[in-house]
Every structure is written in C-alpha cells, then in structure tokens.
Amino acid sequence: MVNLIKRYFLFLVLLMCVVGSVNALTCTVPETCTETDYYVILNDDTLTDTLLISQLESITTWENCAPTVSGISGNIIYFPDESNLARFCSLISYNSGIMFNGDFLGYISGQQVPITTIYYYFYSGQSSGYNYATLDCDLGSATTAYFLVSSHCGSSDGTSIDVNGARVFSGNQDGPTSAYISTVFSSDTLLQFGDGVGYSTAPFLAGSIVVFEYMDSEKILNPSYLTINYTLEPPDLINIGIYSLADVAIYENDYLIGTTDNGGYTTLPFQIGDHTLTFVKEGYWDTLKTISVSLENEPELFVSLAPKTAIFQVSNEFSGNLYPNSVGTLSMDITPLKEAYASKLRVSGIEVNKVYYQTLEVPRSADGYYILGDVTSTQNIEIEFKTPSSWGEKTFTVELSATDIEGTAYNNLETIDYEVLELPFLLEMPETFGIGINDITLTDQSGTAYSVLMVLYDSDDVEVWSSSTNLLEYCDYTFDVPIDDAGDYTLELNAKAGTVKTYYSIDIIEPVTLITEEINVNPGKIATVQFKISNPTSNVKYYTAELTCPFYNESIAKTFSIAPETVDKTVDISFEVPKGLELENYQLSLEIFDPDKTDAIYSGNVVLTISSSSLFLASVPGGNTTIILLAAAVLLIAGTFAALRLKK
Fold first, then answer.
1. SS3 598
2. Structural contact between residues 453 and 495, judged by C-beta atoms closer than 8 angstroms
3. Within 10 A of 460 (CB to CB), how many other CB atoms are there?
4. pLDDT at position 25, please?
5. What average pLDDT does the structure give for the chain?
6. What helix, strand, coil percent values describe the chain, rounded to 5?
7. What is the 3-state secondary structure of 538-565?
8. Which is it for strands 450-457 and 463-471: parallel, antiparallel or unpaired?
9. What was the pLDDT predicted at 9?
10. What distances in angstroms separate CA 59 from CA 97, 146, 151, 177, 179, one per listed residue?
C-alpha cells in the first residue's frame, strides 16, 4: 500500500501540466440541470432525457476517467468546464469509439467550436532499448490539448509522451495505467511517443487527443510504430467579410465575436450552417441578421444600421448587373423598429420609372413623395429607375419619413451606392435617326463571343423590328434598323443571354412639312410648291428636292443646304405650266432626298388645277379656288364703291 502511494505521488509530479483529473468509472447525471458555458447539442433531437441518461450512465469503460455532467435539457448536455467537455469528446476507452458516434456539435461560451479528436496507438514491438515515434501536429493557433492515456507496461518497462521536448506522461508500473491529462499545444507541435523495453513484456500506449481547434497530424516519423486515425474531424470554417459602420460590435447568442475596424470592416470565421448575429453601436438601433453559411454562398455580408432618429431598419439589393442606359431595380426591405404611421418615400438622384409597394404600383404625389401609409411589419419596396449613360460608381438617396403612435417624427436617409458596368461592346449610332435605314455598329471589346439581340419598339411598346447576330471577339457587326414613320421609339440591346441590357430612346420627327397641297394656275404661268424642312444636327445638311409632273419627261430637281440646328426652313421649287394641257387636274409627286440615305426622307403629293380664269390670283403659289373667288369678290365690292363715288 505504501509503495502504491509513492508511485501515485511520483505520477502526480510527472503530470504537472494536468489541469483536472476525473477519477470516476461511470458518468452520473444530476436530477437538476445546471446550464453552463460548455455543452454539446446532439444532432438527433428525438432522444428522451431518460434514454440519454441511460446511455451515459451505462458506459463502464471510461478508463476511470468519466466526464462530469452538469445536466441534460432536451438534446443538450452540459458540462462544468472545458476539460469535462473534452473528456466527453474523447474515446470511451482506448480501443472503442466516442459517444453518439460524434454526431453532435460542441459549444463554448455560446459559440460553436471546432473539435478534433484523433486516436493514437504506439507499439514498437522491440525487445530492448528505447524506441519512439514522432507526430508533427499543425494547428491554427496555440490551444489546450486533452489526452486520454492508456499505458500497458511490465515491471521493467516504461512508456512516455513528450510535447516539444517536455515530458507530460510517464508510465512504468505493472499492468495498465489510465490517465487524463492536458497540456498546451503551440501552432506547430512535435509529439513524441516512446518506450523503454526491458525483458518482461513489450509495452504500448493508446488513447485519444482532443483539441478545440483544427489540427492536421499526418507527418509521422517511424510510422510502423505509430497508428493515427481521426475519430472526429472539425467542420469547415468559412471566412465572411463583414461591412458596416466603424466600431460595430458583433454578437452571436449574446457573446461578442468581433468588432469592425475604423473602416467598418472585419473578417470572421463561421462554421457551415445558420447563424443569427446582432450588430450593436451606440446611437444606433441594434440590428439582427441571420446568415446561412455554405461553401457556395458569397463570402461577404453588408449590414446597415439605423440611427435612433430613424424608424426603419433598411436592407437593399439590386437585381442583376446594371449597365448604361438601362433599367435597374432596387429591392428594399423596410422593417419598422416601432410601429410607423403616415409613412412616405422619396427618391433623389435618379430618374424613377416606377415604385412598387406590396406588389402594387404607387403613384407619385405632387410634392414628389410616394405614400406608403402605416407600416407595422417588414415590407418590400421596389424602385425601378433609369441608369445613367456613363459607367462607374454612382449614388442616389432614399428618404423614408414616418411618425410613431405618439406623433414623434422620424426620418431615414439612406445613401444607395451602386455600380454601372461598362458595356462589353462599343456602340456607334447615327447622330440623329431618321425615316429610312439607320446603321448601328457594335464592336466587341470583351474578348469573348456572345449573341446580341436588337429590338425596336414603338411608343406603345409594340415590337416593330428585331434582329440578332453572334458577335465574335473583337469583331464588329452593323445592324440596319428601318424606321418607316415619325414617332417615339425605344431601341433595346440584349446581349450575353439577357445579362446585359441597354436601352436608347429614338425620337423621329417629321423632317419635311408640305405647305402647298393644292395649286390653281393658268396655262403658261409659273407655279410654285413650298415645303418646310428642319436640320436638328450640328452639321450643315444638303438635300435634293425632286418634283415629278406627269406632263414633263423629267422631274424638276433642286439642291439646297440647311444650316445646323435650323427649324422649319421654307424651300420653293417652281416650274412653268405648259399650255395646251388636256386635263384640268394633275397630281404632282414631291420627294426629298438626303445624300447619306438610300431612300427618300419624304414623299408627298400636290394637286395641280389648271384654271381658265384670267384673274391674276390664279397663279398665286398655293392658291385655290376658294381664295380666288374671295379675292374676286373683294375686288368687285371695291369697284362698286368706286363707281358710286364717281357718280356722285
């Protein structure tokens, strides 16, 4: 008995690194559950308390190192400290598995922690001398490692475990020795297992190592002596970049897990799964955010905080990429931090097409606001707007105003940052579009081939023309866009399977207005046709007018020029009416040609009436029968008055 006490005392001296030993053969679960910061959550939530307790208390192979349990609540098992949590995650005995086959998640201070459990077995099989095997352990950071040690030695044999050259375990007594010890592993730790073989038996070491960290232990010296198997591997960690305001404290389950820097940024590791985070900053409403972490999702999280002067928590996102001259949609979720009354919305800095609230379009009031009314739960707002013609970083503002039930006014002023991407192609269009064929040339500048669809819509959004092509890398293609009539049109370019869209408004004005629609003229007299023409471009334009008369073999042509940005210039084209024409009425055809276009930009008809009257007004340009008769009546009345005056 005295020798046993001495040996036990020496054993304690060798285990100076031990932070706690468990000397129970079985696990006992108390009747009253005490919740602690150290627990596991079983993935199987169908187990009853009775079944859980039965499974824990029925284990009799804990190597004299059973964990202490603080209580059970549903599928949660609590432990008094980290050492007992680690013991639960160790092997039940050196030659068996772990509890519940490792089908659980471990937590410390409310945070899910990675758990690495490895099984080791060292046996040199040598008859004499000192033999060892070295294991190189790589960890993300320094952490505490918990050992379950089962040593089997003869009377003259010995076993040992060294961590970075410091001995943490030594066994040199007859029969098996079980121990549960802990020591600190650095980020790169050399773990050495050894034996000193005498003449009696060949000793061996077996057990498990538990760390609440990611550990990679595959580099083994003398692998024929040492067997390593992973019994429990930690789940993957995904680093999430978090953007918010500066000095925002981030909590998960009431535990602080990080703080943003002065630029409002931080990176935090998360295990795969759902996490509910709380963002806290003085002067701002606390913000809850639930994220779902997976290998596929985006490793970024943007969190906006509402100041205490605001009544809504706002989150927003754009649907798809934005390109110049396109239509973008901003989707906003507004969550009232208290019940909001008489809510209204105002948007500044962009051209708004439509606003949808609760899937219905909201009209814009005379003061520029969109009336939302009372908001008592999370609602969605969609703002459809026209993107600018240039690409780059852009900004606009959204203002949300409301009052609470006490009449206190609140105001959210949200700054919305967005990026307009550069189009993958260069676009060459006419300075002005006109009636006829208009050439539009696309040249790829992305270095990839893709399809392009071009569609022309009229003012009623009815498709009037479309064409498509496969645009090759760094090549160009010209679309011939026909426009038959004056009016307002929209040209849509759709590329890369609809991921790139841009729109252009086309206003086709009637370039020519005919002044003279009817002419009354005597044979042998000069007739004149007049029309107005405009030049909206910044260049001098040259045109040719051709008047076709049935009684002439060739058309009458006149070439003229128009100064830039001239509106309604009057142009005359005159001709002599031949004598001896057989018919009283003729239809003349007037066409206006732009030398840059193939087809005439204008075609019209003029009615020529051959008058037999000798009145001089018959040859007045643009004259008609009614005007001539009125003029004759005026002359007749004037002559009558003159005759009466002479008679007197």
1. coil
2. yes
3. 8
4. 77
5. 85
6. 10, 50, 40
7. CCCEEEEEEEECCCCCCCEEEEEEECCC
8. antiparallel
9. 38
10. 12, 20, 21, 19, 17
Per-residue pLDDT tens for 194-221?
A: 887 765 567 889 999 999 988 888 788 8
Q: Is the dihedral of CA 78, 82, 83, 88 positive or negative?
A: positive
Beta bridge partners of 113: 106
The answer to whether 265 and 243 have CB atoms below 8 angstroms apart is: yes
For residues 182 and 147, is the Cβ–Cβ distance under 8 A? yes
Average pLDDT of span 303-327: 89
Give per-residue pLDDT as tens, 462-475: 999 999 999 999 99
Q: pLDDT tens digit string along 570-625? A: 999 999 999 888 889 999 999 999 887 777 888 899 999 998 754 444 444 444 44
β-pair type (104-108, 71-73): unpaired
Cα(294)–Cα(305) distance, rounded to whole angstroms? 25
> Is pLDDT above 90 for 296?
no
In tens, the pLDDT along 322-340 reads: 999 999 999 999 999 999 9
Q: Please provide the size of the chain in residues.
A: 648
* CA 588/CA 607 separation, integer angstroms: 6
Q: What are phi and psi of 430, to 5 degrees?
A: -60, 150
Please calculate the CA angle 477-483-489 and round it to the nearest 5 degrees. Answer: 95
Smallest CA-to-CA distance from 104 within 113, 93, 94 is with 113
Strand, coil or helix: what is 124? coil
One DSSP character per residue, 429-459 reads: --SS--SEEEEEEEEE-SSS-EEEEEEEE-T
Q: Residue 425 corresponds to which tokens in the numbers above?
A: 């192609």
Q: State the CB neighbour count (10 A cutoff) for residue 240.
A: 19
Contact 389, 411 (CB under 8 A): no
Residue type, 347: V
Q: CA–CA separation, 570 vs 232, rounded Å?
A: 92
Looking at residue 120, its amino acid is Y
What burial class does residue 286 get, using C-beta atoms within 10 Å of its C-beta: 0-12 exposed, 13-18 middle, 19+ buried?
middle
Question: What distance, in Å, lies between the first and last C-alpha atoms of the chain?
Answer: 170
| C-beta atoms surrounding 150 within 10 Å | 23
| Local structure of residue 325 (DSSP, 8 states) | T
- What single letter denotes the amino acid at residue 618? A
Do 473 and 447 touch, CB atoms closer than 8 A? yes
Confidence band for 634, pLDDT divided at 50, 70 and 90: low
| Alpha carbon of residue 231 to chain centroid | 40
**Segment 19-46, tens digit of pLDDT:** 344 456 788 899 899 999 999 999 888 8
The Cα–Cα gap between 519 and 633 comes to 20
User: Residue 244: is its pLDDT beyond 70?
Assistant: yes
Which pair of structure tokens corresponds to residue 623?
């004259």
